[in-house]
Amino acid sequence: MAIDVNNESGTDIDEQAVLDVARYALARMRIHPLSELSVIVVDADAMEQLHIQWMDLPGPTDVMSFPMDELRPPAKDEEEPPQGLLGDIVLCPEVAKRQGEEAPTGHSMDEELQLLTVHGVLHLLGYDHEEPEEKAEMFGLQAAIIDGWRGERGIEGPSPAPTFT
């Protein structure tokens, strides 16, 4: 899996954890191992520009996903998943820090960035949370991926709950 993490934010983040959780999520979703993903970490000003340009919404957001080849997880009976360019995930550590602090259980900026990375991967794979059924499916899958990844790393304690709706 070719995953690039490019931190342009000026904030120190655990880039290795972002890379690892993205790789785990893609493997769990059975995405071809030769597929490519880019994760870009930007400051609040850059994220606000993207949010206005692409969503016509004010202020910075936590994560944005820009799909390329519209890859989807393969059906269970397919022998090999298709490969391609997944696209870009853009993360904002400033928003992630605030959301982590405001979460009911409270968690770190890096834990929030890990959650947002999985959230972004799922959006790239066509998952959404506009409708209640979609939200239940996406957030359930997101929790399972985070819990699985944390379990493999030996991280104890509750996984961070989603801080977005």
What's the helix-strand series? EHEHEEHHH
Helical element count? 5
Radius of gyration: 15 Å
**Beta-strand percentage?**
5-15%
C-alpha termini separation: 29 Å
Largest sheet: 4 strands, mixed
- Mean of pLDDT: 90
Give helix % range: 40-55%
Q: What is the strand arrangement across the widest sheet?
A: 1-2-4-3
Q: Please tally the β strands and state the result.
A: 4
Poorly predicted ranges (pLDDT <50, ≥5 residues)? none
Net shape: globular
> What structural class do helix, strand and pairing data support?
alpha/beta
Written overview of the protein:
The structure is a single chain. This protein is of the alpha/beta class and 165 residues long. It contains five helices and four strands; from the N terminus they run βαβαββααα. It has a four-stranded mixed beta sheet with strand order 1-2-4-3, sandwiched between helices. Strand 1, helix 1 and strand 2 form a beta-alpha-beta unit. Helix 3 crosses helix 4 and helix 4 packs across helix 5. The longest helix is centred in the C-terminal third of the chain and has 22 residues. The mean pLDDT is 90.
